[in-house]
Amino acid sequence: MKEFRGYRELKMSKKPISLIQNIIVDKASKEGIIIDRIILFGSRARGNYRRESDWDIAIITNNKLEKSTFWDFYITVKRELTKNGIPTDIIIIPKSTFEKKKKIIGNVAYYANKEGKIIWKKSSKKSEDGLEKPMMI
């Protein structure tokens, strides 16, 4: 998996990616969900998408989410992205599960890891209050 190096690499404008980052991070913060990273994968990450292609997004969380939290977060993010004209396929997966499944050919985590671009990740930098600061890529 590669880190996102710039919008030219994906042959697209930065607006959709910025919206995706902002919506997911904002909704996660409101739900108390800690995100490890957000991965763009599929045709948008490979650069062979069409105008009508959807956005395949993997949201890797630090911990497994309670069922109700998972669905509230998923529906809220999906609805907000759709409202902003960004059709998506979203997977939300705990980091520990992602690390195991990314080695299994055919599993969606495998493809997210293999061809994906990290578009947002949690920073290891600490702020003045001792909390980790999120980092936009």
From TrEMBL:
<dbReference type="InterPro" id="IPR041633">
    <property type="entry name" value="Polbeta"/>
</dbReference>
<dbReference type="Pfam" id="PF18765">
    <property type="entry name" value="Polbeta"/>
</dbReference>
<dbReference type="InterPro" id="IPR052548">
    <property type="entry name" value="Type_VII_TA_antitoxin"/>
</dbReference>
<feature type="domain" description="Polymerase beta nucleotidyltransferase">
    <location>
        <begin position="35"/>
        <end position="105"/>
    </location>
</feature>
<protein>
    <submittedName>
        <fullName>Nucleotidyltransferase domain-containing protein</fullName>
    </submittedName>
</protein>
<dbReference type="InterPro" id="IPR043519">
    <property type="entry name" value="NT_sf"/>
</dbReference>
